[in-house]
């Protein structure tokens, strides 16, 4: 597993290859994952941080939709980082169905079949769930209430028919981690209220 410093270096390289808001979003996901994992004995906060930092590392390859998950997986597999490579694929799927992706399928049919089987057959652990949660509460400027982030995604990608089911799955993740932390996770994260006031337009 990459150390926090190594993960930060990889994100910095990605930022040089394809600058954009995904960098600060990834930093936000990493920090929020670390802060939540700190409260859960069975999770390693450094591992959670590295996974959060690099969940979108496929965006180093340019502006893409579903291909950013596959590009990230392929890149991290080339570094023999299976645990983080897996997160690149699972972070978008609280529902284990490839057809619940918000965005375009800019991949080949062969790649879609691979991704569909991977998502369907993977037994999620709490790292998969944690990065899914943090992806759903992290704007580039930091943590926000989940509903704010869900609207942010909807404004960019519309409201496909699976939207309500996916929103419910994300809200269930929030409740799950509230129970694991024995508190509302928002109390663990800095500036949630302030960030939630920011306009999405």
From TrEMBL:
<feature type="domain" description="HD/PDEase">
    <location>
        <begin position="18"/>
        <end position="85"/>
    </location>
</feature>
<dbReference type="Pfam" id="PF01966">
    <property type="entry name" value="HD"/>
</dbReference>
<dbReference type="InterPro" id="IPR003607">
    <property type="entry name" value="HD/PDEase_dom"/>
</dbReference>
<protein>
    <submittedName>
        <fullName>HDOD domain-containing protein</fullName>
    </submittedName>
</protein>
<dbReference type="InterPro" id="IPR006674">
    <property type="entry name" value="HD_domain"/>
</dbReference>
